Amino acid sequence: MSSTPVLEIRNLNVEYGLGDQAVRAVRDVNLTLHRGEVLGLAGESGSGKSTLAYGMTRLLAPPGVITGGEVIYHPEKGEAYDVLGLSDRHLQAFRWAETAIVFQGAMNSLNPVHKISTQLTDVLRAHRPEMSEAARNARAREMLKLVGIAADRMEAYPHQLSGGMRQRVMIGMALILQPQVVIMDEPTTALDVVMQRQILGQLIELRERLGFSVIFITHDLSLLVEFSNRIAIMYGGRIVEEAAAAAIYKDSLHPYSQGLLGSFPSLRGPRRELTGIPGTPPDLKGMPSGCSFHPRCPKAFEPCSTNIPVLARPDDSPRSVACWLHPVKEPVG
Questions:
Q1: What is the pLDDT of residues 200-242, one digit of tens each?
Q2: Which of 73, 109, 117, 273 makes the best surface tag, with the fewest CB within 10 Å?
Q3: Which residues form the ABC transporter domain (predicted)?
Q4: Are the beta carbons of 234 and 47 closer than 8 angstroms?
Q5: pLDDT at residue 267 greater than cutoff 70
Q6: In a domain, 233, yes or no
Q7: How does DSSP assign 242-300, residue by residue?
Q8: Through-space distance between the first and last CA atoms of the chain, rounded to whole angstroms
Q9: pLDDT in tens, 237-265
Q10: Does residue 186 share a domain with residue 85?
Q11: How confident is the model over 105-127, as a mean pLDDT?
Q12: Is there a single domain that holds both residue 91 and residue 31?
């Protein structure tokens, strides 16, 4: 993994709706993805994970609106640029070629009336019009082989494939133009645990072979601990903690991160009681004052209900946390 950034999110804000009724789904998010890195993004449903992914790629459906911030992309060659400022023509070229997304439901993402071969070659037809039909078909067969699917499945329809195979097709489609960044939005949620492990293992193998960077979005922190380089925890539309995966697992600083870790069983060591997190996620229309987690936090004290904590590096550490339990040394962003 390199220390060179490939994607920088700076003070990104996303709202749904307009005026006084607007809901702030993403709030002043700062996040950096390094070249060759797997960055995990975890949090409960409704914390803003998917909205952040769709905002950074300008895939927000109405009434979603980006109200502020920058998304700086660093290509392998040439100058860095702000994705939010791209024209429609340049944005079309950016998608798939530079950044690709693997969505949660492969059956819903694949067109049910077209064969797998058609859907794979359509990407090449749109972005590589100079390629011959034979070259497109050869590239499609190559990608299927790369994700562990026999070439004869090219002529199958999505409903003729298992859930795991459909998800592999989506990964192959995302990688067919060799993008630098692959965003995976809970791609294994609908799969059984055995298939989850197979696909995640294959994803890591492909990343090591091809060198792309990954943003992996999930509510299952236990998955991220195993194969991510770094993990960012979201709550109420904000990043509340960011650190190396090992640091999050061994010594998480934010009470919300600790609650997430206490919600799944450990595969090793003595058995322990699962604790979970009391209460429910905040209503984005009426966020609590101060720290948004304080109504559910077992460690809340006086400033938590009145002052919003800043995402900062405590005690000169490379990690960052937004919590009044830890002194502010250097704000992030």
A1: 888 888 898 889 999 999 888 888 888 899 999 999 999 999 9
A2: 273
A3: 9-261
A4: yes
A5: no
A6: yes
A7: EEEHHHHHHH--SHHHHHHHTTS--SSSS--------S-PPPTTSPPSSSTTGGG-TT-
A8: 22
A9: 999 999 999 999 999 999 999 999 888 77
A10: yes
A11: 88
A12: yes
Per-residue pLDDT at 291 exceeds 70: yes
Q: Which residues contact 208 (CB under 8 A, 6 or more apart)?
A: none
Distance CA 38, CA 108 (A): 25
Alpha-carbon distance of 43 to 276, in angstroms, equals: 13
Q: For 48-62, 142-156, 185-199, which range has the lowest pLDDT when averaged over its residues?
A: 185-199
The count of domains in the chain is 2
Q: Which helix (H) or strand (E) holds 90?
A: helix 88-97
Q: Do 42 and 260 meet the contact criterion of CB atoms below 8 Å apart?
A: yes
- What is the token pair recorded at 54? 């769709």
Domain-located, residue 122 = yes
Q: How many residues does the chain have?
A: 333
What tokens appear for 98 in the block?
């530079």
Token look-up 């922190």 returns 221
Answer yes or no: do 144 and 204 share one domain: no
